[in-house]
Amino acid sequence: MNHTDLLNIAKTFGDPVYVYDSGKIISQFQRLTNAFGSVKKLKLNYAAKALSNVAILKLMNSLGSGLDTVSIQEVQLGLLAGFKPESIIFTPNGVSLEEIEEASKLGVRINIDNLSILEQFGSKHPNVPVCIRINPHVMAGGNSNISVGHIDSKFGISIHQIPHLLRIVEVTKMNINGIHMHTGSDILDIDVFLYASEILFETAKNFKNLDFIDFGSGFKVPYKEGDIETNVEELGKKLGSRFNEFCKEYGKELTLAFEPGKFLVSEAGHFLAKVNVVKQTTSTVFASIDSGFNHLIRPMLYGATHRIINISNPTGRERYYSVVGYICETDTFASNRRINEISEGDILCFKNAGAYCFTMASNYNSRFRPAEVLWHEGKAILIRERETFEDLVKHQIDVKDLFAQKKEKALAK
After folding, report:
1. 144, 160, 275, 390: which has the highest count of C-beta atoms within 10 A?
2. Predicted TM-score (pTM) above 0.90
3. Residues 358-395: pLDDT tens digits?
4. Does the annotation mark 328 as catalytic?
5. Residue 195 is labelled as binding a ligand
6. How many CB atoms are closer than 10 A to CB 37?
7. Residues of 96-116 as b/e, b for ≥16 C-beta within 10 angstroms?
């Protein structure tokens, strides 16, 4: 997919618009699979929260992926996309017992991350196999909001609570079929990840009927030129070898599971937006686009970097711009960024827009959420229509009669 293809998509489907390259998703899936080629039983469970459009879920299902879900709605989307219940794992955080029971009734695998719900669920449903999410107390992640394995994290059951966990399992007679961890996103140091894995292996020895060990994900992808990324090939070689050793010690061929999200879809995504205004102040040149953090919040929320390319003028002279949105508060995508010269009406392309971009979009300022397009085998396919005013008010209730009555009473006085 080149600049001309992207410009044609913006012209055909309007802007702003999200575009996803299926070829990149497929190659990333194959890359991760190949990295762990030494493991006999490997299962990649795509993290639906990264990008949950049903068309993307169907693509993942066609590749043989499982599905990692964090809400009952994601479970339902997975079933709608054709995933078999047993290929979906439900890994929520802080949800009610009722939601976990609802997911269990749908036949998906259950992953529980706190002692309270574990005891309640095990007491009521001792025959339902359960995976346990462990907090290894290992810090990983590029931002405090996405580091979830440290000691102060709300995620997982602390390794220091293993004795309590084992008492619950013994008393309820529940069946523990999996052990899981997730240290956080943007893993940079493979050795830190391998250290956390050893904690997981040690924990797994306490359970005799395991079917799988889930090592989470969080593989870092490059966000700018020269950016570092997780060396999944090296990780595959080292962790794959260690996992095979553990299976021999355990006396059973277990499944090695991962739940990649960003790794699979981030680089496949492009966000296209038009420049409304080029505005020069005493110190800054602003390029204001027809979008805002209502469509792409990561730069404002995480301080995330997205490369921005002027695909209308890719060979023009580079100048410094602050790219901002139309939301009525600070709404900055990039500050003093070198971009090929921008004119009003140009289309800017935000790279790495596949993960946690559309899924975090909102209707803030009563703006419509954009369309989504899949680029597949050389064709642009609309997979979500742009919202309209009718969508904005669809679930709102008209209370005009209520206020009409109050007005009549006021006039009567």
Report:
1. 275
2. yes
3. 999 999 999 999 999 999 999 999 999 999 999 999 99
4. yes
5. no
6. 11
7. eeebbebbbeeebbbbbbbbe
Q: What is the CA radius of gyration of the chain?
A: 24
**Phi/psi of residue 339, nearest 5 degrees:** -135, 145
Catalytic member of 131, 247, 328, 357? 328
Q: How far apart are CA 65 and CA 79, in angstroms?
A: 13
Res 381: pLDDT? 98
Sequence-ordered list of residues with C-beta below 8 angstroms from that of 152, at least 6 positions apart, any chain: none
DSSP run (H or E) holding 401: helix 400-412
384 is annotated as contributing to ligand binding:
no
- The full set of domains in the chain, from first to last, is 36-260 (3.20.20.10), 269-393 (2.40.37.10)
Does residue 398 contact residue 89 with C-beta atoms inside 8 Å?
no
What's the confidence (pLDDT) of residue 227?
A: 86
Count of C-beta atoms within a 10 Å radius of residue 343: 12
Task: Tell me: is residue 356 an annotated ligand-binding position.
Answer: yes
**Encoded tokens for 178:** 């999996």
| Residue-level pLDDT at 206 | 95
Planar angle of CA 20, 21, 27, nearest 5 degrees: 130
d(C-alpha 355, C-alpha 227), whole Å: 17
